[in-house]
Amino acid sequence: MALALNGIAAGYVPGVDILRGLSLTAAPGEIVTIIGPNGSGKSTSLKVAAGYLLPHTGTVAIDGEAVQARPIDQRVRKNGIAIVPQSNNVFGALTVAENLDLGGGFLPSAERRRRIEELIEAYPLLGRKRREKAYTLSGGERQILALARALMPSPRYLLLDEPSAGLSPLMLHEVFLAVREIVRKLGIAVLLVEQNAAEALAISDRAYVLVLGQVALEGPAASVLADDQVRQLYLGGAAV
Ligand SMILES: Nc1ncnc2c1ncn2[C@@H]1O[C@H](COP(=O)(O)OP(=O)(O)OP(=O)(O)O)[C@@H](O)[C@H]1O
Asked: Which ranges carry the ABC transporter domain (predicted)?
């Protein structure tokens, strides 16, 4: 049981590969973080995993099934994939409950209502604000709502593209704790792309360092965090 990208080449323009032979895995119960310099292909790798972008070569396997040619809606329905994109990920003009409802679009309505209540119980903050428009939420609250909405169809693989973008250090911490809690409670796999390498690695089990569309380093999050080059390049040389 895992999400596995194998030897992926992919890009946006013919003849220009952004990912160049990328391989990575994420298994249920673990948080796997991808760090790397700007433009190294971190978000692109999530798009390939989700099915927004189809690779030229290589395979994407979910629980052993090859899905690289399968578009995102089918991966969501059939393979338990969910993605929270980088920003603008909630509908401000809709209420908290309506945003959650949208996340379960293809579920029968009774099932959708049940999931909304479950998620509101798991995130009391959402319950308190269930009838408020999402534009009134703080950045961190919005990010929690985006996470909860992605959980509506009970995914097994959750892809998160920079959930800390634009958040204060305190809110960032809250959001990461929520991610850790989701994995602990639900046993799903999280594949996380983050600029905030130190914070992300602190909640992760494993990590990949991506450079120019290839894996430059991989291993347990603690060893990646302790790596000299990683510390110099991404953590400002800070001691851990
Ligand atoms: N929709 C697109 N069309 C064309 N080129 C794109 C598109 N999206 C990304 N790119 C290019 O692909 C490369 C990798 O982008 P990607 O967003 O995957 O990098 P990243 O590692 O996530 O970067 P960052 O840390 O800055 O978010 C960049 O050179 C970017 O300009």
From this structure: 3-237
Model pTM score: 0.93
Residue 221 lies inside a defined structural domain of this protein: yes
In a domain, 240, yes or no: no
pLDDT 10s digits, 92-107: 999 999 999 999 988 8
Q: How many domains does the chain have?
A: 1
Contact between 149 and 124 (Cβ < 8 Å): no
Residue nearest to atom 4 of ligand 1 (CA): 12
Cα dist from 82 to 27, 156, 158, 214, whole Å: 14, 8, 5, 24
**Enclosing domain of residue 94:** 3-234
State the CATH number of the domain containing residue 48. Answer: 3.40.50.300
Tell me, yes or no, whether 192 lies in a domain: yes
In a domain, 239, yes or no: no
Residue to mutate, 8, 12, 86, 192, ligand 1, most ligand atoms under 8 Å from C-beta: 12
The residues facing 176 across adjacent strands are none
Q: Which atom of ligand 1 is nearest to the CA of 86?
A: 27
Ligand 1, from 8, 42, 53, 215: best to mutate by most atoms within 8 Å of Cβ? 42
**CB 211 less than 6 A from any atom of ligand 1:** no
The Å distance, Cα 44 to ligand 1 centre, comes to: 6
In the chain, DSSP assigns E strands to 3-10, 19-26, 31-35, 57-62, 65-66, 81-84, 157-161, 189-193, 206-211, 214-220
